[in-house]
Amino acid sequence: MTTRKWLLWTTVIVVGVLSYLGWKFFQPRKLAEGFASSNGRIEAVEIDIATKTEGRIIDVLVDEGDFVTAGQILARMDTEVLMAQLREARAQLRQARSAVETAQSIVVQRESEKAAAQSVVLQRAAELDAAKKRFARTEILVKKQAASVEDLDNDRAAFYSAEAAVNAAKANVAAADAAITTAKSQVIESKASVEASKARIERLRADIDDSALKSPRDGRVQYRIAQPGEVLGAGGKVLNMVDLADVYMTFFLPTAAAGRVKMGAEVRLVLDAAPQYVIPARVSFVADVAQFTPKTVETAEERQKLMFRIKAQIDPELLKQHIRSVKTGLPGMAYVRLDPQAEWPAHLEVRLTQ
What we know:
alpha+beta; 4-stranded antiparallel β-sheet; Elongation Factor Tu (Ef-tu), domain 3; 6 helices; Helix Hairpins; 27% strand; 6-stranded antiparallel barrel
């Protein structure tokens, strides 16, 4: 009987001690001077995966919650119309190149015509010179009564005719110059059409490439906004994802504490879902306008205080090492070191998963 009583009392004492130790362990630790704390939630930059051009969704290749890497194809759009436009643009390019060749051959032809016209000018100029001399001689002979007036009239007419022929030949040269200018402008216009067709082909190729919607960076899919078969306009949202390289916790501190927070100050994050880990971060933003505490704060006293929003950014290099373990939306506590000389307490030393 004595032994039973002793065992009973021993059991009661052990249970009491363990209960007390457990109660002490789970009691919130009081922070030393030079620190401040507040509750918050892990957040990340959200990215909408949207269409560049209007069209029908052929397939969505990921589900909500999937981890995706930069450059991974997430969804595909129907490219049938774009492919038809690309074939049309290629045909227009061939037509424009042919027009360039035709215009260039016309330039060569017009330049040949100009050369021929210039030869005619030289020929007509020689004929004019001969007619002029013959007319001058006939005038002298008429004065000496060695030639008839009729001969003089004929030579005068021949001279004027030769002069008109020279002017006509020069006009033909000028017309040839104008024709060359027109032909060269057609070459320039045709070359511009070639460049326009090339640009259209490049744009269509880019649109076809963009029809495969890719992840811009490593992250996690949050929502499937659209489904295969739906028709979306340009800019229509298909997926929403979070950038796991840009993760932070937003929390609020009262005026007295927020005023002591420096940009770049060290922060320790402890998540409710994993209290055994302590995640290092740094202050990347302090609001310059005070606001009331968010609705998640429980006590009336805290609700009445004006609070400042603060953002603690987790190092992107650290995130890369644990990127598949990163979860957004998790609540936790943020501890800020207000005094750079203050030593972190043992329970807030950095502890990470291996």
